């Protein structure tokens, strides 16, 4: 295959994904406008306190980011009950190619809606290799052309870069961009262009709804996912012991739970039974006890660190 042919195939693949994602965005807005309007009319309080970015997709990366922002690739449950149930309307003026793209978008939507909490959570966990040691990380956000991964400072602090392995097995270079000076939380980034577009569809991002954490109680079920033996390969179930227990060694309140964890799972995710991210796994004992930094702390540090990056 010549260079020109490779380039043409790459462009055709790019056009194909753009068409499918545009159709998916179209289906989403068609089936959610009435729902969103009703929600907005009934309660504007949440909308005013949260930041809802204006989405104007103009290229493949931005279209993918738009879908991430809309929650299609989130670990948590979809709040809109219409998701995954949109029908494909017939249009006599559509070309065969347009109908094919619409069908592909519908199939993708159905597949996303049918994923279990476990499947989504595992796809949000990566393995981070920092040279002489390794641990876990959680796909946290997407910023323009970069994936943001959160992990523990004690894993990221020694060197400025490492290798990130995703659930699909794809490896990419990761650069440490910021570490908290008060909590065991740090962030690194991976260029989205270092992954194949097929890999993009397999990524899932941590659901960061703080309301879910506020509703947790002792005894509620949880599960943890880490990368001790491979990216997103280690999974254990347990229960919450205390949603806010102070650990002197971390100088912080932590989510305390009864659950098994292995060395190498630090920086992984702690989820409720619906797959909502509720904390970052930070420590464990041989007595099957775990300590996780609550999601609200991760959100706070993320905002602080990226505000500092913006001011540089």
In short:
The chain is an alpha+beta fold and 312 residues long. It contains nine helices and twelve strands.
What does this structure look like?
The chain folds into 3 domains: 3-114, no CATH class; 124-205, Trypsin-like serine proteases (Thrombin, subunit H, Beta Barrel); 210-300, Thrombin, subunit H (Beta Barrel), CATH 2.40.10. 36% of the residues lie in helices and 28% in strands. It has 312 residues and is of the alpha+beta class. The chain is globular, with a radius of gyration of 20 Å. It contains 9 helices and 12 strands. The termini are far apart. It has helices at residues 3-42, 45-49, 60-69, 96-114, 117-123, 153-156, 197-200, 210-214, 295-311, and strands at 125-129, 134-143, 146-151, 161-165, 171-179, 186-191, 221-226, 234-247, 252-258, 269-272, 277-284, 289-294. It has a 6-stranded antiparallel β-barrel. Strands 7-8-9-12-11-10 form a 6-stranded antiparallel barrel.
């Amino acid at each position: 295959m010549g260079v020109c042919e490779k380039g043409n195939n790459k462009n055709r693949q790019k056009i194909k994904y753009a068409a499918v994602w545009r159709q998916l965005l179209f289906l989403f807005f068609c089936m959610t406008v009435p729902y969103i309007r009703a929600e907005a009319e009934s309660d504007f309080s949440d909308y005013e306190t949260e930041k809802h970015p204006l989405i104007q997709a103009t290229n493949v990366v931005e279209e993918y980011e738009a879908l991430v922002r809309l929650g299609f690739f989130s670990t948590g449950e979809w709040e809109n009950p219409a998701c995954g149930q949109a029908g494909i309307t017939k249009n006599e003026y559509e070309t065969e190619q347009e109908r094919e793209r619409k069908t592909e978008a519908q199939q993708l939507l159905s597949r996303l809606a049918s994923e279990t909490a476990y499947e989504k959570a595992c796809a949000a966990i990566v393995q981070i290799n920092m040279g002489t040691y390794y641990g876990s990380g959680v796909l946290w956000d997407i910023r323009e052309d970069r994936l943001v991964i959160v992990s523990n400072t004690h894993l990221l602090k020694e060197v400025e870069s490492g290798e990130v392995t995703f659930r699909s097995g794809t490896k990419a270079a990761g650069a440490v961009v910021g570490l908290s000076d008060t909590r065991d939380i740090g962030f690194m980034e991976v260029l989205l262009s270092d992954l194949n577009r097929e890999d993009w569809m397999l990524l899932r991002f941590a659901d960061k709804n703080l309301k879910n954490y506020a509703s947790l109680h002792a005894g509620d079920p949880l599960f943890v996912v880490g990368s001790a033996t491979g990216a997103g390969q280690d999974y254990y179930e347990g229960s919450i012991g205390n949603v806010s227990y102070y650990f002197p060694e971390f100088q912080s309140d932590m989510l305390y739970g009864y659950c098994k964890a292995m060395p190498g799972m630090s920086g992984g995710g702690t989820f409720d039974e619906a797959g909502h991210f509720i904390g970052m796994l930070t420590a464990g004992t041989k007595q099957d006890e775990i300590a996780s930094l609550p999601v609200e702390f991760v959100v706070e540090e993320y905002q602080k660190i990226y505000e500092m990056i913006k001011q540089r």
